[in-house]
Amino acid sequence: MEGAYSAAMTSRGGTRLFISRSFRQSSRRGRKGWYQDSLKGQEKKLSVNRGLRISAMFEDRKEAGQMLADEIVKLHLPNPVVLALPRGGVPVAFPIATALRVPLDILIVSKVGAPHNPELAVAAIVDGNPYDIVLNHEMIEAYGIDEAELQILVDQKRPELERRKQVYRHDSPQIPVHDRTVILVDDGAATGTTMRVAIRALKRRSPRAIVVALPVASSEALRDLKQEANQVICLSRPARFFALGYHYHNFPQLTDEEVIGTLHKAAEQTGKTDSNRR
What GO molecular function terms would the record report (predicted)? Predict the structure, then answer.
C-alpha cells in the first residue's frame, strides 16, 4: 500500500485503516490535491489521442464504444482485459471487449462522503479482494477527521458496495489484472475524479499498463488523467465541455438490469471463463 495509509482485512471481513505518520506530517504542510502525490516506481508512457479534437456527437454509448474499439485494435495491446465503470461505461466497453475478444468486467467505485456533507468525498472505496481505499487528503484535513471517524465513514459505505457487487457480479470473482494491460472505460469524463480513483486502485494490483478509453472528456480531465494512466485514448476533446449527455444524441439513464444483460452477453461472446481467472 502507499504511504498515505494502509488497509487490512479484519476477522469480520471489515477493512481497518491506518493513517501513517508521514501522511499526517504531509497533510499539515498542505496538499495540492487528492491525486497530486507522486507515484514512484511507475514508468509512465503518456500519450493522448490528438487526432479528433472537434466535439463529436455520438448516436449512443454503443456507437461511441465501436469507434473506440476501431482505435484500440490498432494498438495491439499485450494481454488486455477490459474494465468498465458502471453503469455508463458498460455499453461503451462492450464493443471494445468484443473486438478484442477479451473478457469484460466492471470496477465499482463508491464515494465516501464527508460528515454532514455527503456530496464532498473524503475517500472512495474500489471493489476488490481486499478493497482499495483512496483518501482525499485535503478534505480529511479540512474536516479534521481522525482514523476512528474515517473508519466509521468507510464502514458505512461497505453495504452499498457489497450490494452493487452482488447485483452485477453475483458470486463470480473479479478478473485479475496482474501483469495485464487494463483498458479502463467510461462514457465520458467531465472532471475525471472517478476515473482517477479507479486508476489509483488498479496500480496497487500490479497491472502491466493502464489504458484509459473515453469517447469524450474535458481538457482538464484529460490533463489529469494523462498523468495517472500509461495511455489515454479520447475521441473528442471539446473546447467547451457541457454536461456529458450533450455529446450524445441518445443518452438514457441505464438500469442495473441493462448492465447485467450486457455483462452476460459479453460473457457469452468472449467466453464465460477467463484463462487468467483463479
Answer: transferase activity
